[in-house]
Design brief:
The protein is mainly alpha-helical. The protein has one domain. It contains nine helices and no strands. The longest helix has 23 residues.
């Protein structure tokens, strides 16, 4: 069953890559997505047809990563209602990361519905404390909003909304672990780019993928903390 879950995750990753080129059309900013439009899975394009289309590395990595994450999540949570909702959270965070990596966009069409859906599901499905959920969202919003205002250019308001979604997802104090994982991953990548001279001290990189990485990893390891 874990193998089947992994295959399902690969298909979900393919759907994510399709959505990552379709959803930006709802953005107020002009985004050219025509050149990346392709309905075939990256696995098929790369390993069967031998093609290397635009974004093939990102798309192939997304399919592989989603497959692995879904397999691990299934082994942790089993085929329960909690698993299917947590799988939805994982797909949302991976989708946000892929879109931001490609187009530097964090779309309201994803974050706004997620705020309400995750809040209700956390309380009524996962039975988290409403106080902890509200505190987590408030803390995340405050930290990222103040950073965006005090240091314009380092964070955008899309990052603020994403951080709030993560705060609602995990509540307080679990959200701090998710942020710590994301910040750690971002720091490692930044150091690597500096060492390889692929970036300078003033180079900006998309921050949403690292926030989403921290969220996805913490979803997988959350049972170790005694909470679902």
């Amino acid at each position: 069953m874990v193998f089947v879950a992994g295959l399902f995750g690969i298909v979900a990753g393919w759907v994510i890559t399709l959505a990552s080129d379709w959803l930006p059309r709802f953005s107020q900013e002009r985004v050219d997505v025509k050149k990346t439009k392709n309905h075939q899975p990256a696995f098929w394009q790369v390993f069967v047809k031998g093609e290397r289309p635009v974004w093939w590395k990102l798309h192939l990595g997304t399919e592989i990563l989603t497959g692995l994450v879904v397999a691990v999540a299934f082994s942790q949570y089993g085929n329960a209602s909690d698993f299917w909702f947590l799988l939805t959270e994982v797909i949302v965070f991976i989708l946000i990361a892929v879109i931001d990596a490609k187009y530097r966009l964090i779309l309201n069409v994803i974050t706004y519905p997620s705020l309400g859906i995750f809040f209700l599901a956390d309380i009524f499905l996962l039975r988290q404390s409403p106080l902890h959920v509200i505190l987590g969202a408030s803390l995340a919003f405050s930290i990222f909003y103040l950073t965006a205002v005090l240091k314009p250019g380092e964070l955008g308001f899309g990052d603020v909304k994403l951080a709030t979604v993560i705060g609602i997802t995990f509540g307080f104090p679990s959200v701090l672990w998710a942020f710590l994982l994301g910040a750690g991953a971002g720091g490692i990548v930044a150091i690597y780019l500096l060492i390889k001279r692929r970036a300078g001290l003033k180079t900006t990189i998309p921050y949403a993928p690292f926030l989403c990485f921290g969220a996805v990893v913490f979803i997988l390891i959350r049972p170790l903390f005694g909470t679902a």
